[in-house]
Amino acid sequence: MTEIEVKAEDVRVLLNKTRLSILKHLWRRRYTASELSKILGLAKPTVIYHLSILEKAGYVNRIEDGRKWIYYELTESGKRTLKLKAVKVILVSSLVAFVLVLVLTMPITTQKTVSKPLGVAMSEAVVILFMIFIVISIAIYASYRIIRS
Q: Kind of pairing, strands 60-64 and 31-32?
C-alpha cells in the first residue's frame, strides 16, 4: 500500500476556501489572475496572493508565454490532491448511503419474529437493500459531479 505524505504546510494551504476554489477552477483549464479574479469575485491582488501560496506549495505552475499574459495551471501534485479529495467524497457518501439504507429498511416491529437465515424473505431483503444502496450511491455521485462542474 502506498503511503500518502501530508505536511502541516500543505494542510494550511488547502484549508483555505479561496485556494480550493482556485484549484477547482484550474482543474478545468489554465487561467490568468484577472480571469480568476472575475470568476471568484475577488480583487486581483488577493487572487495573486493566493496563487503565489499555491505556487510555493507546488500545486500551481506559473506560465509566462512571452506576451503580456501570465497563466496559471495545476501541477501533477495539484491534480493528485483534487483527485484524492474526489475519492474521499465518493467513499464517504457511499458509506452514508449504506448506513441510510440499513436504517431505513430496519423492521420497526415490537413482535419477536423468527425468520429463516437463508429463507426467501432474507434473500429478497438483501437484493432490495443492495438495489437501494446502488441507487443512492449513483444519486450522490451524480450530484457531486454536478456541483463540481
A: unpaired
